[in-house]
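During the first year of the project, the team set up a workflow for recording each protein of interest as an amino acid sequence followed immediately by a discrete structure-token representation. This format lets reviewers and collaborators read both layers of information side by side without switching files. As required by the reporting guidelines, we include two representative entries from the current panel. The first entry is reproduced here exactly as it appears in our internal archive.
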Amino acid sequence: MSGRGVWLRARARLRRFPALLAGCGEQAAAYGRCVAAAAGGTAELRRDVCLEEFRALQDCFARAAKATPK
């Protein structure tokens, strides 16, 4: 039995990722700003500092993935 079908499906999902990311630009930018601000200077990045922004980005990806035809 070949695993080729698995890899083809995985590649197809990965090909959709740039389009999903483009649709969530505002959330991705907000998360990036938060991470940059939290890790700026001598401060260490701590877990869950940007949790709200991360969840917004995660929700946007999930909505975009559901709305995108396979």
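The second entry, processed by the same pipeline in the following quarter, appears below.
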Amino acid sequence: MSLPSPSIPILDSVASCRTWRQKAFSDNKSVGFVPTMGALHEGHLCLVRRSLAENDLTVVSIFVNPAQFAPHEDLATYPRTLSRDLELLVAEEVHVANAVRSPSAVFLPGVQDIYPSGISQNVESQRGTFVEVKGYSHQMEGKSRPTFFRGVATVATKLFNVVQPTSVYFGQKDIQQALLLRKLCGDLLFANPDVDHVHIVPTARDPVDGLALSSRNVFLSADERLFAGTLYQALQCAESVWTQGGTKAQSISAAVTVVERSREKATLKGVDMRLDYIEMNDSDTFEVLDDEALKESELLKKTPVILSGALWFGQTRLIDNIVTEVHDTVVN
């Protein structure tokens, strides 16, 4: 493919990335890794800055992964903005001590590089090697997207094998994905990155209505965007009821009420807004928690609780979450 010519090195094959990484090993340099599907926004750039601050070198990958899209999902229309992505990365700088760090390379593999046996969005017709994290892929987002995490775990394993990062950075918005990949690194005994260097960074949000930044936000119409902060506001309401001693049922009911009131206003403007789910899950097992388990978890500080949800605007599905925790065991 024809690529722009930015000042940042572009690694457009597995071989070139491995050569680059071998030099970093030889030079005893730490490597931070930010895997993305492109269409970069401020949320991605926050991850890049965190990596720049903590590592000698930072590599960003841009790869729209077919394996995590079901046949009916938006692979063909997923936003692809490579030229702008590279411009944003070139502009990033972080001052550390007496040095200025900027992204060291962009890994731009092709589909054939990542899936040498080929890839189909239909799981039943796929051939080759795939990775599943059993028992952790059917809850939360997995209920709506049953093959999603199989695709995520597979592509992450491949990217980790090529880049072999010292540390990797994910955003909290995709909390289940990030925690699942942290478990993957522990279960498969990855050295690069090891489980303690899979970092989850707080969600970047719109400063006005709190909407979680996402590449899919570009699909929202102007009228839909007016109501897009509803999900976060609903989750905040549920968290408030919960922390004030309410039950799970009361907390979720309060959140649903926020969504319903917003939906009524949205309908008047011709906006199709539909709640997918709002739920409370164990951050360790992803299992749905009932009131007794929630109270035990909170009182004994056994494990943080994930309060999450998904909301549809027409054909665009937005997700978000809040983690109720005292210590930074999940988000750090």
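For the second entry, the following points were noted during internal review. The chain has a mean pLDDT of 93. DSSP finds eleven helices and eleven strands in the chain. Both points are flagged for discussion at the upcoming steering committee meeting.
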